[in-house]
User: Fold this.
Amino acid sequence: MQYDAIILGAGAAGLMCAARAGQRGKRVVLVEKSEAPGKKILISGGGRCNFTNLHTAPDRYLSANPHFAKSALARYTARDFLDLVERHGIAWHEKTLGQLFCDGSARQIVDLLLDECARGSVEIRCGADVGAVDHADGSFRVGDVAAPALVIATGGPSIPKMGATGFAYDLARRFGLKVVEPRPALVPLTLGGEEVLFREISGVSAPVTASAGKTRFAEAALFTHRGLSGPAILQVSSYWRPGEPVVIDFLPDRSAGWLVEAKRASPRATLRSLLRGALSARLADILADRLAMPAELANLSDKALREAEMRLAAWTFHPTGTEGLAKAEVTVGGISTAELSSQTMEAKRVPGLFAIGEAVDVTGWLGGYNFQWAWASGVAAGEAI
Ligand SMILES: Cc1cc2nc3c(=O)[nH]c(=O)nc-3n(C[C@H](O)[C@H](O)[C@H](O)COP(=O)(O)OP(=O)(O)OC[C@H]3O[C@@H](n4cnc5c(N)ncnc54)[C@H](O)[C@@H]3O)c2cc1C
Assistant:
């Protein structure tokens, strides 16, 4: 059967791309291996789908080419997706830091996309196992369908138990496209050695700033039975490389010299009592134990207090690894942007072949940025097909 485009993967990017191309009058078939479309959308944002971020900007994405995402993100913005959400009468709210969520359920976003696809007469085939993709004489063939355009929208390999694989990369490589080494991102980090003692406070969270290299995030960190998690840690995990430390400021709002000032104001206080006033008791205790300065502040030198302050502001953890693709929200790396047009997402060396969404080496921060990339890259390809 002949179509204008075959889109592989009915996730966020594939559905958006199909709707846009279909509404432009293109005959589109969307081929999905799962029984239903949009499975990752349904579990996203704790079931409420953090569908975009008002602060979307290219510098909130990781890619070997930091300029690549600019064009698509500028042509389809967070406001554009929000307009679509509002046209569909979906109630939404900003949770924090520009993150927009459905008031109701992520199902509403999947329904929106299916509705837009229906308006474009897109044919959706679920439960279709894509075997071989043939390419000859400018035509792509998948099973019994053929088209001059093929869009790879099969996502990345994070959360394999949902069926996610490296299919997109294998297919891209078959067409001679380079793939930037994928690694798990937005993922908890594991602790070992002495630092396993922090497992004692599993479940405790605190507002911190966390940094890996030069990149720093001010959000909550959470101690877990395996190591570190919470938004601040998930964010830095995308930048963290094995062997590097992660540095946490446990008291980011305190100004320099606060401990020496506390000594003047309350000489009978202890470091433990001060920390208990600022942090949860279990976290305060584990930090105080490690600082090992039980005396009253009056009996501690200013130099020792300044050193303690510096340790609290730059507590250095040495993660042993990440919790891997099984727990990663996304994958950094993917189909190299050097192979694609930033205007259309079409492969420069293989006319008619497109790649969009998480399959491409563009990865957003936590907070709705990844869906915004899926929408924007989907629209860019949907308009070019
Ligand atoms: C638990 C979790 C929560 C998340 N929450 C958020 C959030 O709130 N906000 C946000 O911005 N991002 C979130 N993300 C990230 C977001 O889900 C992804 O960035 C986004 O889904 C990527 O869209 P995509 O269309 O490229 O890939 P996907 O949504 O993964 O879609 C790919 C589709 O291709 C199909 N497929 C795979 N292989 C084949 C094949 N061989 N043949 C046919 N079909 C195939 C898959 O079944 C799937 O339907 C979350 C991720 C996870 C895991």
Observations:
- Residues 8-14, 31-34, 39-40, 43-45, 49-50, 130, 153-155, 158-159, 163, 165, 167, 329-330, 357-359, 368-371, 374 surround flavin-adenine dinucleotide (CB under 6 Å).
